[in-house]
Specification:
The chain is an all-alpha fold. It is built from three helices and no strands.
Length: 178
Amino acid sequence: MQTHIIAAESQASLLIPTLPDLIWGALSFLVLVALFTWKVLPRLNQLLDERSKAIAGRIDEAKHAREEAERVLHQYQEQLAEARTEAGRIRDQAREDGKRIIAELREQASAEAARITAQAQAQIEAERASAVQSLRAEVGSLAIDLASGVIGQHLADDKNASALVDRFLAELDLDTAR
């Protein structure tokens, strides 16, 4: 039975620490807590504060960057609206210029057509006058030949006959003009 008791005592000492072990354990624990409180914890708090500041700084930078991006976007949209307005104005100006150029070209074409028509009319009038003159000479010559044939004398050299034919043709012109 004594073995049993020794075994029980050895089992109890394994489960329950002795007083020196408790003192050394408690002392070690207090040293570690003190070391942790004075050295590790302030350093850890400092690192956490620095990290918080860095994160806050990045958030502020991101906020400023977003505000800058919004400002630039707004500026871009204003410039785009101005460019669209300017493009519309340029387009309208080009249409007006095109209409003006077309009107000028039509006016020039009309003037050129009028000039060509006037020139053609003048040429036609000159050719008509030439044809009338030629016809008068021809009709006069025929009339004199016909009169010579009726009278039996040659009248081609007679100035009176030529004057008579001219007067007859002038009267004929006056009758057709009326």
